[in-house]
TrEMBL record:
Lineage of the organism: Bacteria, Bacillati, Actinomycetota, Actinomycetes, Kitasatosporales
Species of origin: Streptomyces pluripotens
UniProt-recorded name of the protein: FtsK domain-containing protein
Molecular function in Gene Ontology: ATP binding; DNA binding
Binding site for ATP: 282-289
Region Disordered: start-end pairs: 471-526
Presence of keyword Membrane: yes
Amino acid sequence: MARRPLPRILSKDSAQIARTQIVRSRELARTAADSATDVLHPLITVTRGLRRLASAGRRKWADTPKDKRGPLLFLVACVILVVALAPYGPLLAVITVMAAAAWQGRDRTPPAPEGPDESQAERLQALYEALVPYFCGPDDPAPLYTHGGDWEQAFTAHEFDDGGRVGHLVIRYPAYYPDGEPEARARIEQLLTAKAGRAREYRFAWDEEGNQLTVTALAPLPADVPAQRFVTAPGETVLGFTDPSEVQRTLPLSYGEEQIDVPPVVWRTGIRSTEPHLLVMGQPGSGTSTLLRSIVLQALQYGDVLIVDGGGTGEFTCLTGRDGVLAVECALAGALASLEWAAQETERRLIAINLARQAGDPPPADTRRPLWILLDRPSVFALLATSEGRNDPQTLLQVPLRHGRAAHVTVVVAEQFDSAEALSDAVRQHTRARVVLGPAAPRQVEAVLGTPSHTTALAHVPPGRGFARLGSGPVHRLQVPRTPDPYDDATSDTDRQAVLELLPPRTAPADVEPAEPIEPADLTKPAVEAAPVAAEAVPVESS
């Protein structure tokens, strides 16, 4: 019996030909649909008119009082009888009905106005006049910007929002303008922000090659997205939400009684992460603790968390004694002991992973479970340690920061701008994922993120609003999900219940404290005997 030949796998050229044929088929189908619409347009118009006439007849009959419906029916019957008996009456009646249906079925959408109206033209002319001192050169033989000139040559595209303000604008400027200098750009951006409206955020896109500046008014980010479980993979943490045009991914969220899709800012951690540690900067009340709580609730799904709270406000009291929370330390002694244990745990994991690799075995399971170290306001502990003659707790973060990626250890540090100088060099060097929250000057944003933001900042922003940059990527606008302290009296019942539902169950009473401080050796669960780390046992990663 002859065997049937197996189907041949498509080669690269065959697959390309198949894709080309699919595209051509779609274009032919779209062209055929447009042609059919053009041919059947009169029939579609008459059908729409007949439907509108029938609807008008039903409304007229419903509005007629019952005592007058009989005479109305008699009158209609007489008209039909006269039309039927008159010469060419039925034909004329059909022509009249078709003409009325065609008139009623016409497209009543008013044509879009060509160009801006009077008030919009005045706004554009005011913007043009404001730009004249900056874009007009004294030696330019044919200046594009002159006092009393025409704005239509300088503004190639423009759009307005419902309030009559500029929503999108494309500006041409002379080639000799120094658009590569940050100071020159900042002057134009500040001017356009003031003239177009300060109560909005704008994105500025400079095209240095084409000598064009695109100004876009950005819609406000949703500031009332509650805390909830996000659809993410292990190793992914949602820092917040951003503009739809900035990312190619959306997350389904519960927004009140609705389900919406919001573009997230996802921070990836783990052994393959290029930005394994995070630094959060902000002003008091800007939402840094809210972001840390949101990160903790997501991290507890797959790993363990160690929290060191230097603020002393009890923002993380709700996490005490929870499953997966190793400790919530608010005192200097406990912070030093916990961070010393974290450094030893990182070394233990590195030794265990190195021994397993040398033996050709997979890493132990306890080294693959993520460990999160969250340090809020380390400058407070630094001041206390200096006054008591102790070491700065940040010095204990050098090992987790340098080798945490290989050991599945992630460090998150939150600090305020007025104490930024207290951050150690190791924290500054190894936290390549950065977040700035709250109102901040452009120089502060650039100092933290390493590059200026292409969007303006508002003077009054909601808590959790700011900017984020992951490594060398672009700067994104950020809105942190609403994750308040459930034990705060100012928290609403809805937000309190949303956070409490995400908390893991308690494994120990929150009000029970150990009688003596726990030594670092008691906290460790070593897979091998604790010993000084040899230089060859710690793999040094490239930053």
